[in-house]
Design a protein that fits this description.
Shape: globular
CATH architecture: 3-Layer(aba) Sandwich
Low-confidence stretches: none
Order of helices and strands: EEEHEHHEHEEHEH
Number of helices: 6
Mean pLDDT: 96
Distance between the termini: 30 Å
Largest sheet: 8 strands, mixed
Number of domains: 1
């Protein structure tokens, strides 16, 4: 079981399963952790636990709950990798962004935490960008976000801090896509882009073959400093 909490959707008609990790003492803020295509798996739960250890309440919603609740896949197993891609291809990002908004509301209303950040990985990196353009999230971070180059027309709506980690050898985000992101976002005072030369998609995974220890530690340090500044 990957989740331990249910969060009402915006219309109150349904609920979003989520994994919630709580800190000891009063939270300094909240971090929403958005999964890759592999669900709220052990790596994502570890990321949430790490944020809780740093004093934040961490919430990892089940992004694919409308398709299939409790998806939990291992990216190092080819068949499971492809299964995750299938869920991604069918995901409704508009509804998914509304779910993020519902989680923000729940954190502020029910948990009493006003400052909320979001960090997303892969597909979650795209959701981080959409959160920055479509919600009132206080800060958002995307790791190797896919498809951002296709929605750069929304960048004018970014009103809060956004940080994007871009590995230059990303097999899912082409050099042209990376160039388009830089061209559209480098001049935006709310946005910071970091390139990671020679690193590939998934370099900051908590476990598995894709992790690059040096790159992951650098990106995570930058993310922690970013949230300390903008969230708490």
């Amino acid at each position: 079981m990957t989740t331990n909490t249910s969060i009402p959707t915006l219309d109150g008609a349904d609920s979003i399963p989520a994994y919630v990790a709580t800190p000891s003492g009063t939270p300094r803020g909240a971090i929403i952790v958005i999964q890759e295509v592999f669900g709220v798996n052990p790596g994502i739960r570890k990321k949430a636990d790490n944020w809780a250890a740093q004093g934040y309440i961490a919430v990892a919603p089940d992004v694919f709950w409308r398709q299939k609740p409790d998806v939990e896949l291992d990216p190092d197993i080819p068949e499971q990798f492809q299964e995750g891609i299938g869920y991604f291809m069918k995901h409704d990002f508009d509804l998914g962004t509304q779910d993020v908004e519902a989680v923000i509301h729940w954190i502020r209303r029910d948990q009493g935490v006003s400052k909320v950040g979001l960090v997303g990985f892969c597909m979650g990196g795209r959701i981080a960008y959409l959160a920055a353009t479509r919600t009132d999230i206080d800060a958002a971070v995307g790791y190797y976000g896919t498809g951002i180059d296709q929605i750069l027309n929304e960048s004018h709506a970014i009103a809060k801090a956004l940080l994007l980690h871009i590995p230059t050898a990303d097999g899912f985000v082409t050099p042209d896509a990376q160039q388009a992101m830089h061209a559209a976002l480098d001049g935006n005072p709310h946005v910071t882009l970091f390139d990671y030369e020679g690193l590939d998609h998934g370099f900051a995974s908590e476990m598995g073959k894709r992790r690059n220890e040096t790159g992951a530690q650098l990106a995570d340090k930058r993310t922690a400093e970013f949230f300390a500044q903008h969230v708490g």
